[in-house]
């Protein structure tokens, strides 16, 4: 099996000729003339089947309504999580017999660990039941907070709120990737994910101050209930197996002296050719006789150009028919995908123990670690600024008081600009990963700007504090959006497992940074800890360079892990 030595021993031509899972040709050259010129067309990838139940074939209204619901879920979960911190002073006023410091609730940052359970269960039972159940968990936990005045119970409620919210960062990105083509995936979901905590930070304190402590839980319960209702009605099951065939075309080339190949011929995959479409009857399944010395991710040698390998069509029994074969039936033989049909839940797929172990295998993929560090660093930076900033603006010479939450407004502006930047530049004609370089540089600089302005307070230094928060939020919108698309396209069904590990480390980094800065600020001031975070974030940002320069070689080296765990 090829590994790192094999991948980096290949020539540039051999690497270019190799077709991997996740290699997509988005711009297709078709013979179509428009105004006397030949025009390029955008290819649809993944290639949809003829089945109306295929999420790629759904009507536009169904796709966008489902996208709106998962975006609402991402917004609400972060709103609920962030709205309680600015309202904690109201707790001390409402229940003076049991005053509590804000640090008591920082353990909610570790509740991304709930994805250890949600993602394997989603792979076993489907995405729809897990999203509905997690939204139900969030609603019940929030509703319990509308009557309790015991802080220990509030902490228990926050634990279950985190459990019900954690699926918004793992299961829902997979839902977006399942129903949209590669060139259609934008930043609406991640913008909602990032803006929820910002809006919650602004509104939480005002709701509790004007309407009372319990009114905050009542407002969160209404939002959670709306999310649950929309998820039940508008989010169908997304997991759909498509028949994919891979034809080794070089084996059909006769080995004679008249035909000489200057460069190795790559494997021709029907999945990687958007212009080709094949429908296989449900009673048959195709298989290709490939020798053990040649697999789909290897570069063929001249010895492999032997006699043609037969393409066999084997008949399978009714007991062995699976959704893989059924998904290829033509549209004339398929029932329409009606609203009642969309209300059905997924089927049980078994292998529960294996699904729980599989996320830990993704640590062998370099991209998982890179996303872990970059996303975790950005979330940690936002957590530090959101915890330190309001307290700083409440001190002289600012004295913002109840208006300290207005710091989050600039973060909201950065999120909107980041979403527009991603939608405009990370489109169908540009490689998406290099688009992250300016954003990561801006976020790294934002941490340093915040440290300098916090260390040297002045009459107008609040402008720098807010601008720095917007700089970090600008990148926070793009990094999860673009990296999620990369993981889904490169690792297919393993993307969900990658999200699990990413959320675990993201929670650990954000908790560690927030805990460290609260101790270091009192001892060393603001510049030293924020300067240290700037250096760390700069190192995390530089990890993107190997992906830009050696992405394909890295995926060749780790291809055996991807194929073996689908």
UniProtKB/TrEMBL annotation:
One of its GO terms (molecular function) is transmembrane transporter activity. It is found in: Membrane. The chain crosses the membrane at residues 64-85, 105-124, 187-207, 213-235, 367-393, 405-426, 433-452, 467-486, 498-516, 528-550. SUPFAM superfamilies: MFS general substrate transporter. Keywords: Membrane, Transmembrane, Transmembrane helix. Its main location: membrane. One of its GO terms (cellular component) is plasma membrane. It is a multi-pass membrane protein. This is Major facilitator superfamily domain-containing protein.
């Amino acid at each position: 099996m090829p590994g790192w030595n094999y991948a980096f021993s290949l020539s540039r031509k051999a690497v270019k000729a190799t077709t991997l899972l996740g290699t997509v040709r988005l711009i297709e050259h078709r013979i179509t003339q428009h105004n006397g010129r030949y025009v390029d067309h955008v290819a649809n990838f993944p290639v949809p089947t003829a089945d109306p139940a295929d999420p790629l074939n759904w009507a536009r209204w169904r796709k966008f309504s489902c996208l709106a619901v998962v975006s609402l879920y991402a917004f609400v979960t972060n709103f609920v999580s962030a709205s309680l911190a600015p309202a904690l002073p109201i707790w001390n006023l409402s229940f003076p017999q049991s005053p509590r410091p804000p640090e008591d609730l920082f353990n909610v940052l570790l509740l991304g660990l709930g994805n250890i359970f949600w993602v394997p269960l989603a792979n076993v039972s489907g995405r729809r039941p897990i999203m509905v159940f997690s939204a139900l968990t969030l609603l019940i936990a929030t509703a319990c907070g509308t009557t309790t005045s015991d802080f220990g119970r509030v902490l228990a409620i926050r634990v279950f709120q985190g459990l019900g919210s954690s699926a918004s960062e793992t299961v829902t990105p997979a839902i977006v990737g399942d129903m949209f083509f590669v060139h259609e995936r934008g930043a609406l979901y991640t913008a909602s994910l990032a803006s929820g905590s910002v809006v919650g930070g602004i509104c939480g304190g005002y709701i509790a101050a004007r309407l009372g402590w319990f009114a905050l839980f009542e407002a969160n319960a209404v939002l959670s209930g709306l999310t649950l209702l929309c998820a039940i009605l508008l989010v169908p099951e997304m997991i759909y197996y498509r028949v994919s065939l891979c034809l080794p075309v070089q084996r059909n080339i006769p080995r004679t002296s008249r035909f000489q190949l200057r460069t190795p011929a790559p494997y021709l995959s029907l999945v990687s050719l958007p212009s080709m479409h094949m429908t296989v009857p449900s009673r048959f399944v195709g298989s290709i006789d490939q020798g053990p010395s040649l697999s789909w991710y290897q570069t063929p040698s001249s010895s492999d150009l032997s006699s043609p390998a037969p393409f066999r069509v084997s008949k399978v029994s009714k007991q062995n028919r699976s959704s893989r074969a059924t998904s290829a039936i033509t549209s004339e033989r398929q029932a329409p995908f009606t609203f009642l049909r969309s209300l059905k839940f997924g089927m049980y797929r078994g292998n529960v123990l294996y699904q729980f172990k599989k996320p830990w295998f993704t640590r062998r993929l370099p991209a998982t670690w890179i996303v872990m560090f970059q996303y975790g660093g950005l979330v940690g930076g936002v957590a530090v600024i959101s915890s330190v900033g309001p307290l700083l603006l409440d001190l002289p010479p600012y004295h913002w008081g109840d208006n300290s939450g207005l710091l989050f407004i600039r973060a909201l502006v950065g999120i909107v600009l980041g979403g527009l930047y991603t939608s405009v530049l990370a489109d169908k004609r540009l490689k998406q990963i290099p688009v992250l370089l300016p954003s990561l540089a801006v976020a790294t600089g934002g941490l340093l700007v915040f440290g300098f302005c916090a260390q040297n307070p002045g009459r107008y230094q609040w402008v720098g504090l807010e601008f720095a928060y917007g700089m970090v939020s600008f990148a926070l919108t793009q990094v999860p959006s673009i990296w999620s698309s990369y993981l889904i396209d490169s690792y297919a069904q393993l993307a969900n497992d990658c999200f699990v590990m990413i959320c675990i480390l993201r929670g650990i980094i954000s908790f560690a940074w927030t805990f460290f800065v609260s101790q270091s600020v009192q001892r060393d001031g603001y510049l030293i800890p924020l300067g240290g975070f700037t250096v760390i974030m700069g190192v995390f940002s530089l990890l993107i360079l190997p992906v830009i320069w050696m992405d394909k070689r890295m995926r060749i080296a780790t291809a055996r892990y991807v194929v073996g765990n689908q």
